Amino acid sequence: MTRTKTLSASLPALDHPDPQTLASEVLMALKYRVGKDTTVATPYDWLTASIKVVRDRIIDHWISATKETYEQQEKRVYYLSLEFLIGRLMRDAFSNLDIMDPMREALASLGVDLDEIATLEPDAALGNGGLGRLAACFMESMATVDVPAHGYGIRYANGMFRQEIQDGWQVELPETWLDHGNSWEFERRERSFEVGFGGSVESVTAKDGRLERHVWKPLEHVLAVAYDTPVVGWKAKRVNTLRLWSGMPVDPILLDKFNAGDHIGALAESNKADALSRVLYPADSHKAGQELRLRQEYFFSTASLQDIVQRHLSQYGELASLPDKAAIHLNDTHPAVAVPELMRLLMDVHGMDFSQAWDITKRTFAYTNHTLLPEALESWPVPLFERLLPRHMQIVYAINAEVLQEARSSNRFSGDQIAAISLIQENGDRRVRMGNLAFVGSHSINGVSALHTELMKQTVFADLHRLYPDRINNKTNGITPRRWLIQCNPGLTALARQAIGDRFLDDIEAIKELDRFAGDAAFRDKFAAVKRANKTRLANLVADRLGIRVDPSALFDIQIKRIHEYKRQLLNILEAVALYDQIRSHPEKDWTPRVKFFGGKAAPSYHNAKLIIKLANDVAKVVNGDPAVRGLLKVVFVPNYNVSAAEIMMPAADLSEQISTAGMEASGTGNMKFALNGALTIGTLDGANVEMKEHVGDDNIFIFGLKADEVAERRRGDYQPRAIIEALPELAQAISAISSGVFSPHDPDRYRDLMNGLYDSDWFMVAADFDAYAATQREVDAVWNDRADWNARAIRNVARMGWFSSDRTIRQYAKEIWNVPV
Q1: Is the pLDDT of residue 92 over 80?
Q2: Residues whose CB is less than 8 angstroms from the CB of residue 541 and which lie 6 or more positions away in sequence, other chains included
Q3: How far apart are CA 7 and CA 299, in angstroms?
Q4: How confident is the model at residue 210 (pLDDT cuts 50, 70, 90)?
Q5: Nearest to residue 350, comparing CAs of 329, 320, 326?
Q6: How far apart are the first and last CA of the chain?
Q7: Spatial separation of the C-alpha atoms in residues 272 and 275, rounded to whole Å
Q8: Helices marked H in 233-333 — which ranges?
Q9: Average pLDDT score, the chain
Q10: Is 412 exposed, middle or buried (0-12, 13-18, 19+ CB in 10 A)?
Q11: How many CB atoms lie within 10 A of CB 415?
Q12: What is the pLDDT at residue 769?
C-alpha cells in the first residue's frame, strides 16, 4: 500500500523575476562565465549565457529536492534506458520555470531574439525513436508528479547519426551535438566507477572446503564517468537527475609504448573506452558491432548499479532494504544484463548467498517490454557473452537452473514449453535470451498498451506468463503535455486558455472542457487559424531547406517515425502512387489537394528500410515535377527527423498516419502527440490506437484494415498476396510502375525485388490492407471538404487526449509497480 505524498514546505518557491533582473543576470553570465562582452558576443554566446542564468535557478530546486529525499528517506526510482531522446532543453526549462515571457523580454532589451538563439541549441543525440522519447517524457513527468528519480544512460558523443539525403539516398553522418559543449550538464569525476570485461573467475573456498565466494578478475578495465543533467518538472515541483555515463580509460596513455614509438598502441586503451560512449546502436550486422553493443549495455548497467548500491549503502549501511528504498526499472531489454550484475554485486562483493540475492533482485527490478518483434528481443551468442562477462554467464546459468527447476516441479509444462522458458536458446546457435532474463529477474513486467500487453501473454512470453501469472500488467504509454502542447503549439495553448482557463496547464485532463467548443463556429474559426499558422511555418521550413513549395491550404498528411517495414511507409507510398495515377487519369474529378510528408531514419544495415526512403524521394521527384498533377498532390521527405522537427511538424498535421501492421506496434506515442495537436488519425487497430479510438470516439478517427488476430490467422493460413494484387487494378498498376522503373528510369530494376516481395510473401500485409486504406483515404477527403465538420472532429481529438498524459502513466507506475507515493 502506498501513502499519499504531501509536498514539503522546504522546497524553494518558484520565483518570478522581472525582465530587468534577468537581463542583468544574462549580461553577468556573458561576461564572467562565457568571457565575452556584448560587442563580440556570438549568438552561441547569448544562448550559453541564457542557459546558465536559468540553470542557476534550477540548481536551487535540484539541491533542495535531493536533500529532502535523503532526509525523509524517500524511495527512489532508477530508470535505466539506453536512450533518452530529450531534444532541446532551453524552452523546456523556461516553460517549466514559468519565465518564458520575462526571459523573452529580457533578451529583446539586449537586442537578442529568444526564438533565434533557441534554434541554435542542438538536439541531444541520446536516442533514436519512440523508446527514447518515452524515457524523456517519463523523466519530465516523474519530476512533475514529485517522484524522486534518477535516469541512467550513456552520454553518446555522436548519437545514432545525422541523416542527410543525397540523390534520394540516406547518408549517415556523425551527429556532433557536443561541438559547442553542453551548458546543461555537470561533470562528476568523483562519481566514476570501474568497469571490467573478459578475464577469468576464481573460486575462493573456506578452510573446511566449502565454496565461499567467486572472484571475477577482468582482463580489461575502463572507467564510467558521470555527467548529470537536471530535469525540471512543471513549475519546478521537483528537479530530478539524468545521469549519463561517458567511457574513459583507466590509463589515458601508455607512456612507455608512446616513447618507444608505438603511438597507436599507446592510445589503444583510450580508443576502446571512447568507443563505449561514441555511437548509439553500432551496426550489429557484424561481430565487432555486436560485441561493442553488448559492451555498451554492460558498461552503463554496471556503472548505474554500482552508483545505486553505493548511494544506498552510504545512507542505510546495508543492502537487505534495497527493494524498499530503490525501484530499478529496465526500459526494454538493453539493460537486462543488470539482473546478473546486481546478483554479482550482492554475492561476490557483499557476501550474500544466492537465495537472498535472488530475492532482493526480483523485488528491486521491474521491466517494460516495448516490442513483440523477435529482432528487438535481444539475445547474445553464448560464446560472446561468456568471453566478455564470464562471471555473469555463470550467474545466468544458476538463475536458469532455479527457474527451470521451478517450472519442472510444477508438472504443468511440456519439454517444448520448458525450452521456451529457458534463458538459453538451445536450437541453432546457443544464445542468452535477454527478454527472458529481464522477465524472470523482475517482479513486474508491463506492456505499453492494452493490446500489446495481451499479445505478450499470448506470444513471446506465453510460457513465462503461465509460470508467473501475476507479473504481466499494462501501463499504456503517455506523453508530456508541457513539451507536446504548451511548448510546441503556443497558439493552440493560448486559444485553449482563452476558452477554458488555465487549469489544464496543471492537470491536462481538464482539457476535456474544450469538447463543448467543437460545435462553436467562432471557436472553430480560431482553431483553424492556429492550424493554418502552424502549417505555414512548416511550409516555410520545407521551402527553405528543400526548395519545395507546398500550399498550406492543402491537407497535410504526415507520417514521421522510424523507417521500418512493419510501420508500413511502403503502404503510404503505394497509395500515393495510385492517387497520382488517378489524378492524371481523371482530371475532371474534384480531387482534394494533399501534401504527403515523410520523415524518419533507417538503421544503417537495414537494406529495405533505406530502399523505402529512396523510393519516397524518387516518387516525390516525379510527382512534384509533373504539371499534369496541377499541384493537387505533393510528396516531401524531411531529412534528419528528430524532436525539434517533430515540434514543428506535429502541430501542422491535419492527418496523422499510424498504419502499422496490426499486432506489431507496441503502443506508439506519435499518435498521441498528433491528436493532442489537433490532427485526425488514420490507422489500424494496433498499439495505443485501440485505446485512442475508445477515448476520441469512432467518428473522430479513421480506422481501417485487418485486426491483430486476423493478421495472425492469415499468416497461419494460405495467404495469397498475388491474388489480392491482381484483383486490385490500382494496386497492381502502382506496383508495376515502381517495379518497372517509372520512378527510377536510370536504374529500372532498383525496386524490383522490393515489389516482388509483395507478391511472394507480404509478411506485413501491405496488399491485404491496401484497398481498405485507399478507401479510407477517400473518406478522409470527403470529411476534409466539409471543413466545419473536420475542425469539430479535430477539436474533439484535442479535448479527449488528456488521459494519454505521461503524468497519468507515471502515477500508475508509481502506485502499481514502484510502490512510491504520489
Answers
A1: yes
A2: 648
A3: 36
A4: confident
A5: 320
A6: 12
A7: 5
A8: 255-259, 263-266, 268-276, 287-316, 322-325
A9: 94
A10: exposed
A11: 8
A12: 98
Q: What is d(CA 34, CA 24) in angstroms, rounded to the nearest whole number?
A: 15
Strand partners, 599: 560, 638
Q: How far apart are the C-alpha atoms of 426 and 416, rounded to whole Å?
A: 11
Instruction: Provide mean pLDDT across the span 511-537.
Output: 98
2 pLDDT higher than 60: no
14 φ/ψ angles, rounded to the nearest 5 degrees: -75, 115
Least confident span in 8-12, 342-346, 443-447: 8-12
Q: β-pairing, 424-425 with 431-433?
A: antiparallel
Fold of domain 73-86+123-477 = Rossmann fold (3.40.50)
Tell me whether domains 73-86+123-477 and 509-804 share a fold: yes
Tell me, what amino acid is at 675? A
Cα R_g (the chain), whole angstroms: 27
Which H/E stretch holds residue 361?
Answer: helix 354-364
- Strand-pairing partners, residue 173, are 162
Q: 509-804: which CATH number, 1.20.140.10, 3.30.1120.10, 3.40.50.2000, 3.40.50.1000?
A: 3.40.50.2000
- Beta-carbon contacts of 519 under 8 Å, excluding residues fewer than 6 positions away, are 792
Any idea which residues carry the catalytic annotation?
370, 561-562, 567, 669, 673
Beta bridge partners of 188: 226
Hey, which residues does 637 pair with through a beta bridge? 598
Q: What is the pTM of this model?
A: 0.95
The Cα-based distances of 605 to 281, 329, 401, 570 in angstroms read 11, 30, 36, 18
Beta strands 220-232 and 239-249, pairing class = antiparallel
- Please say whether the dihedral angle defined by the alpha carbons of residues 341, 344, 347 and 350, taken in this order, is positive or negative: negative
Number of Cβ within 10 Å of residue 575's Cβ equals: 21
High-pLDDT (> 90) share of the chain, %: 90
Q: Enter the C-alpha cell of residue 604.
A: 544503417
CB neighbours (10 Å) of residue 684? 28
Q: Looking at residue 679, what DSSP letter applies?
A: P
Model confidence pLDDT, tens digit, residues 367-380: 999 998 877 789 99
> What is residue 283's predicted lDDT score, i.e. its pLDDT?
74
Q: Is the pLDDT of residue 7 over 50?
A: no
- What is the pLDDT at residue 474? 98
Residue with cell 515523410: 598
**Alpha carbon distances (Å) from 586 to 1, 324, 501, 628:** 66, 69, 49, 11
Give me the residue label for grid cell 553464448: 382
pLDDT, tens digit (0-9, with 9 covering 90-100), for 212-234: 789 999 999 999 999 999 999 99
> 392-418 pLDDT, tens per residue?
999 999 999 999 999 999 999 999 999
Would you list the domain boundaries of the chain?
Answer: 12-72+88-121, 73-86+123-477, 509-804
The one-letter code for the residue type at 387 is R
Is residue 381 over pLDDT 60?
A: yes
